[in-house]
């Protein structure tokens, strides 16, 4: 069984800013969300915990999982390029998705993002068969 957990809220989530590679921290709501998730998953005996090295993700994992956490760069959020830190509006989201289709405006292409995530999933599948 694989559990996927999204990190808790950051101020950039709260203020609807593009937050890809910028290393933001959880805010108080995000910490509370992670604690609630820890309660929800309290009866699960995890074999391993993998996470992005980004601070907001590490903070979430450290609240939920008390064992060693394996950091993996393939799990880093997509690079939002020129959109990073700007307001997420309907128009800017449209422009971001257009740019990320080819990697324009400093964004990571969606294909590259998916390839590195799939590479991680392939590794997990091979290593934790059975």
> Remind me, CATH topology?
Rossmann fold
- Count of DSSP strands: 2
Task: Kindly name the structural category.
Answer: mainly alpha
Biggest sheet descriptor? 2 strands, parallel
- Strand order, largest beta sheet: 1-2
Structure description:
The chain is mainly α. The chain has a single domain (11-127), classed as Rossmann fold. It contains five helices and two strands, in the order ααβαβαα. It has helices at 11-14, 28-40, 55-64, 90-100, 110-127; strands spanning 50-51, 70-71. Helix 2 runs parallel beside helix 3.
Give me the secondary-structure topology.
Elements: H1 11-14, H2 28-40, E1 50-51, H3 55-64, E2 70-71, H4 90-100, H5 110-127
Parallel strand pairs: 1-2
Describe the structure using short key phrases.
130 residues; flat; Rossmann fold; mainly alpha; two-stranded parallel sheet
Please outline what is shown here:
With 130 residues, this protein is mainly alpha-helical. The protein has helices at 11-14, 28-40, 55-64, 90-100, 110-127, and strands at 50-51, 70-71. It has a single domain (11-127), classed as Rossmann fold, CATH 3.40.50.1240.
């Amino acid at each position: 069984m694989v559990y996927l957990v999204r990190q808790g809220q950051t101020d950039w989530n709260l203020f609807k800013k593009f937050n890809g590679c910028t290393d933001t921290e959880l805010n108080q709501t995000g910490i509370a969300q992670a604690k609630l998730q820890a309660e929800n998953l309290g009866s699960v005996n995890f074999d391993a915990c993998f996470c992005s090295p980004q601070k907001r993700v590490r903070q979430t994992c450290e609240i939920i999982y008390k064992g060693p956490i394996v950091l993996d760069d393939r799990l880093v959020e997509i690079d939002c390029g020129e959109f990073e830190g700007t307001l997420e509006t309907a128009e800017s989201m449209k422009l971001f998705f257009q740019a990320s289709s080819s990697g324009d405006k400093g964004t990571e292409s969606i294909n590259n993002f998916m390839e590195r995530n799939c590479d991680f999933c392939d590794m997990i599948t091979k290593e934790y068969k059975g």
